[in-house]
């Protein structure tokens, strides 16, 4: 496969999505962070062996770390490198963004949830949000609103004919 065909196959640059996050949380402030990765992790990410379904971000000593991200090592990776699948990875954020995250977590009782991992030029970026957990009735309301919007589109489509 040529380089142009590879780019067309994954033109959005999306590596992994956390679709469950939009269902489980109210998402507020969006942040884009770089990730400090090792060489074998980049090779595995290029091969698509990453899962961010149950990931979240913790803040320790004024730094942000990604917890729960699973990057499976490739079989052809070097044998002398120890590959820890679920190690905590440092997020690269500037001081102002870290202060906003710390303030949201401490004052407003929010959590920080990872929603997407994608390529930006040659760098791997993580999209994360300040979020608050939804209650069960909030989840039902969201599903009901989504179903009603879908039904409304169907009705409008049929009446327009």
Automatic annotation (TrEMBL):
Keywords: Cytoplasm, RNA-binding
UniProt-listed Pfam families: SmpB
UniProt entry tagged with the keyword Ribosomal protein: no
Origin superkingdom: Bacteria
PROSITE patterns: SSRP
Compartment list: Cytoplasm
The keyword Membrane is assigned to this record: no
Record-linked Gene3D superfamilies: 2.40.280.10
Family named by the database record: Belongs to the SmpB family.
PANTHER family, sorted: SSRA-BINDING PROTEIN (PTHR30308:SF2), TMRNA-BINDING COMPONENT OF TRANS-TRANSLATION TAGGING COMPLEX (PTHR30308)
HAMAP family for the chain: SmpB
Role summary: Required for rescue of stalled ribosomes mediated by trans-translation. Binds to transfer-messenger RNA (tmRNA), required for stable association of tmRNA with ribosomes. tmRNA and SmpB together mimic tRNA shape, replacing the anticodon stem-loop with SmpB. tmRNA is encoded by the ssrA gene; the 2 termini fold to resemble tRNA(Ala) and it encodes a 'tag peptide', a short internal open reading frame. During trans-translation Ala-aminoacylated tmRNA acts like a tRNA, entering the A-site of stalled ribosomes, displacing the stalled mRNA.
Annotated protein name in UniProt: SsrA-binding protein
């Amino acid at each position: 496969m040529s380089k142009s065909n590879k780019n067309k196959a994954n033109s959005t640059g999306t590596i992994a999505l956390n679709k469950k996050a939009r269902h489980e949380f109210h998402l507020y402030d969006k942040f884009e962070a770089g990730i400090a990765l090792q060489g074998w992790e980049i090779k595995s990410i290029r091969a698509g062996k990453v899962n961010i379904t149950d990931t979240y971000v913790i803040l320790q000593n004024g730094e942000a770390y990604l917890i729960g991200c699973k990057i499976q090592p490739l079989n052809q990776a070097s044998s002398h490198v120890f590959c820890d699948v679920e190690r905590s990875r440092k997020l690269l954020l500037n001081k102002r963004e870290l202060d906003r995250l710390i303030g949201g977590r401490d004052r407003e009782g929010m959590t920080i949830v990872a929603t997407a991992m994608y390529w930006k030029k040659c760098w791997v970026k993580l999209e994360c949000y300040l979020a608050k957990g939804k209650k069960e009735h909030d989840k039902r309301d969201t599903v009901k609103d989504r179903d009603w919007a879908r039904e409304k589109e169907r009705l409008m489509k049929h009446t327009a004919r």
